[in-house]
């Protein structure tokens, strides 16, 4: 098995689950284009798909020919791929919002048991701040692009990225800290995932282990910005709450957190992405 380990710095003052979801989704978008699963970079690809949807009503049924029908099928397949990408990205956002994600991996192959390439992303769970919101501490585009650039230009990945990978399926598996509450019965937290046994990768699979490292310059414990935005801040100023009870609750929460970190389960996303490749035609350009 070809196994590569690489570290990616995540430069943000406060690390939130929202920031991690953005990073994971950005890595997915980059891998889809880098591994030839979509013919254009994701944002350009998405733009054309949305443009097609707007132009659908302008087509006349009377002008349908074999050429236009061929083009229609191509666009339909491209749209399905785009829809599954959006669904997987939304699943990642929901999973990070409602679960404690230890790691996740994207599998490129015809099935989850026979992947050709696997990209496992390890999450720095101990660095995640639960006292701050992602809306107040978003990761800048510049820092996000710097993280992606360090991935795409990593010397250990040159051999993998220099080889062509034909369009295939992309699956998502998540390692989640075991919850007391059933994952499928949590209110307002429905995530389309199914439990599975962890499967080792086949010897022929190219295995890339990506370790996210938080490199923020500010200690989250010294920031009280989000805490000061609480609706009932006046009660906190008056010290009406029981400090001893709060400290004890925080202690119990940390103990529970440590226990959850030690017991993990693997889950598989119920959706997958089917790679799209444009079928050549001299008289057609579906991107024009």
TrEMBL record:
Q: State the source organism's domain of life.
A: Eukaryota
An annotated GO cellular component: nucleus
What organism is listed for this UniProt entry?
Glossina palpalis gambiensis
Q: Which GO terms describe its biological process?
A: regulation of exit from mitosis
Against InterPro entries, the record matches this protein to: MAD1/Cdc20-bound-Mad2-bd, MAD2L1BP_domain_sf
Gene3D superfamilies to which the protein is assigned, alphabetical:
3.30.900.20
Pfam families this protein is in? p31comet
Q: Report the protein name in the record.
A: MAD2L1-binding protein
């Amino acid at each position: 098995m070809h196994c590569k380990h690489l570290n990616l710095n995540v430069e943000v003052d406060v690390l939130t689950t929202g920031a991690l979801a953005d990073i994971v989704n950005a890595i997915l978008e980059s891998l889809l284009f880098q591994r030839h699963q979509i013919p254009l970079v994701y944002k350009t690809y998405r733009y054309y798909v949305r443009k097609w949807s707007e132009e659908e009503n302008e087509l006349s049924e009377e002008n349908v020919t074999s050429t236009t029908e061929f083009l229609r099928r191509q666009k339909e397949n491209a749209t399905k791929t785009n829809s599954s990408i959006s669904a997987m990205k939304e699943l990642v956002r929901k999973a990070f919002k409602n679960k404690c994600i230890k790691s996740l991996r994207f599998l490129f192959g015809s099935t989850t048991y026979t992947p050709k390439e696997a990209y496992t992303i390890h999450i720095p769970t101990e660095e995640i701040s639960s006292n701050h919101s992602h809306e107040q501490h978003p990761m800048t585009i510049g820092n996000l692009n710097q993280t992606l650039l360090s991935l795409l230009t990593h010397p250990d990945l040159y051999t993998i990225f220099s080889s062509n990978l034909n369009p295939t399926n992309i699956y998502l598996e998540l390692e989640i800290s075991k919850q007391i509450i059933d994952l499928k019965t949590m209110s307002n937290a429905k995530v389309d995932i199914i439990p599975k046994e962890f499967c080792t990768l086949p010897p022929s699979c190219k295995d890339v282990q990506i370790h996210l490292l938080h490199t923020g310059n500010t200690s989250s414990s010294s920031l009280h910005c989000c805490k000061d935005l609480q609706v009932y801040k006046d009660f906190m100023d008056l010290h009406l709450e029981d400090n001893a009870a709060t400290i004890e609750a925080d202690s119990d929460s940390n103990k529970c957190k440590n226990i959850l970190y030690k017991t993990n389960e693997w889950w598989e996303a119920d959706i997958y992405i089917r790679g799209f490749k444009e079928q050549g035609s001299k008289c057609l350009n579906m991107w024009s």
